[in-house]
Amino acid sequence: MQALPVTTEKHWDRLCDHFQAPLGQRWIYGAAAARLGRRVERIAVMHGDVPVALSQTVSRKYVGVHLSLSTGGPLLCPSVNKETALSALKQPQAWPHIFIGTPNKPLGKLPLSKATSHCILDISQDLDRLRANLHGKWRNALRKAEKAGVKSAQVQPRPQALMPLLAAEKQRQAQVNYRAIPPEFTLALQEVAPRSLRLFEVLDAQMLFLKHGNSATYHIGHTGPQGRAINAHNLILWQAIKVLKSQGVTRLYLGSIDPQRAASLARFKLRTGAEVFRGFAAHLM
After folding, report:
1. What would be the CATH architecture of the domain defined by 2-101?
2. pLDDT tens, residue order, the chain (285 aa)
3. Is the pTM of this model over 0.90?
4. Domain 116-279 CATH assignment equals 2.60.40.1090
5. Which of 53, 94, 129, 268 could form a disulfide with 85 if both were Cys (CB 3.0 to 4.6 A apart)?
């Protein structure tokens, strides 16, 4: 196996598509981090022409040492020897650093944090099958929204259009005291990769998605009383699934769930027919 730095977006995107990589390992995530002054490294471990491990790290410097974080990675093939692959990933980084990862496979090591549960929806299936897989209550809520006579509009994700959604997200983070990607990072994503953003709205409800190769991520959303009354987020998500599917996306990351602290949001995601993936615990690599 050989570890190689990857320096072009086209090459990295092709490698990430092999893994159907999540947002944290995609080029646009690293580009946004670099826009905010972070150091970004992208390494692929190859077995011949086949990628067996990938890692994009975002680094900050503390007292002469770089703290490197691989969010949603490293990504390891099921058959690869984990120790050999991880050793290869660390070799190109000769500068002093602490490497923390949230790998897609269990490492058999003591984690630094608890594993989180994430919802992943396979949208490679045809639309009839996807709709049939919806939980009955979710499908009924979608029908109610469809009968309300409103349409889900896709909006150009310019900074001005994003501001109401980002302001609502910042307020929610402050009110309920939870940590998530800050709005400033979303604006950096808009700067470096505006064509990757998909913004949908119905009345006073909005949802923002990020397309990255053959996968996509539900990023943030908000609804007011009008949207809540007609189940606007059900309508928006269904429309987004159709649009993303038509653009070649086969996997939709719906984000983490916490049934104890956010039961209604967990139900909303689970009732789409998404599968639960438990992983991404932080480890010292």
Report:
1. 3-Layer(aba) Sandwich (3.40)
2. 888 999 999 999 999 999 999 999 999 999 999 999 999 999 999 998 899 999 999 998 887 788 899 999 999 998 888 888 888 887 655 556 788 998 888 777 778 888 889 999 999 999 999 999 999 999 999 999 999 999 899 999 999 999 999 998 888 877 766 667 888 999 999 999 999 999 999 999 999 999 999 999 999 999 999 999 999 999 999 999 999 999 999 999 999 998 888 899 999 999 999 999 987 788 887
3. yes
4. no
5. 53
